[in-house]
Amino acid sequence: MALTNRYKSATGAGTVAALILVLVFGSPWYANWAVANTNAGTAGGWFLQLLAWPRWYLDSDDSIQTILAADLKAILVVAFTALFLYLLPGSQLARARGTLSQFFAGWASYVFAGAFAALITTLIQSNPSLLGAFRAAGDGATYGFFVGWIIGLATLGSWRGTRS
Questions:
Q1: 9 in helix, strand or coil?
Q2: What is the DSSP letter of 7?
Q3: What is the dihedral of CA 87, 90, 91, 97, to 10 degrees?
Q4: Where does the pLDDT of residue 92 fall: very low under 50, low under 70, confident under 90, or very high at 90 and above?
Q5: Paired strand residues for 9
Q6: Model-level pTM?
Q7: In terms of pLDDT, which residue wins out, 100 or 108?
Q8: Cα gap 84→65, rounded to integer Å
Q9: Distance between CA atoms of 163 and 84, rounded to whole angstroms?
Q10: What would you report as the CA-atom Rg of the chain, rounded to the nearest whole angstrom?
Q11: Rounded CA gap, 150 and 144, in Å?
């Protein structure tokens, strides 16, 4: 009873959901399982592999720049989600809790977070290019579009910051 829906902020709920998505589905264990046990040629397999997009590493044979960029991308997805949830006015301007504006603001924040995290971290990798950064931002936006509805559901019905 201590934590009920009326005490949950949209920014906090969406950030926690993003953190859980990145920690669980971006883990090396899930990513390896998804690649080994799913078929990217099917919709379900493609989605299960897409969930592992902001993957983070504990150890790898890749260069330190690649590992750092991947880990930073996972961190930035969560941080940018919090930032965009705070900045997007949809959930704050909604007349009543539980409106679709909260859902779409949460969803959009994850699309933006994925795109910006990929754009920034691509520039850290070895041999960065502007075209590579744009392609990575497209991959991040794709991830945010197909997974962001989870963030939208997490923010749905949350406290907007004012009590009326």
A1: strand
A2: G
A3: 170
A4: low
A5: 159
A6: 0.84
A7: 108
A8: 27
A9: 22
A10: 17
A11: 10
d(CA 122, CA 140): 11
Digit-coded pLDDT (tens) for 64-74: 888 888 899 99
DSSP state of 159: B
- 82 pLDDT band, cuts 50/70/90, is very high
Given a contact cutoff of 8 angstroms between Cβ atoms, the answer to whether 121 and 73 are in contact is yes
Cβ atoms of 76 and 121 within 8 Å: the answer is yes
The predicted model gives 114-143 an average pLDDT of 92
Q: Which two tokens stand for residue 142?
A: 């794709």
Scan for tokens 């991947």, then name that residue: 70
Average pLDDT over residues 85-114: 77
Percent of the chain at pLDDT above 90? 56
Rounded distance between C-alpha atoms, residue 87 and residue 78, angstroms: 14
User: H-type helices in the chain, by residue range?
Assistant: 10-25, 28-37, 43-50, 64-87, 90-93, 100-122, 130-155
List the one residue out of 3, 5, 36, 18 whose CA is nearest residue 157. 5
The pLDDT of residue 105 is 87
pLDDT of residue 61: 77
Closest-CA residue to 47 (of 154, 159, 145): 145
Task: Tell me how crowded residue 164 is: count the other CB atoms within 10 A of its CB.
Answer: 5
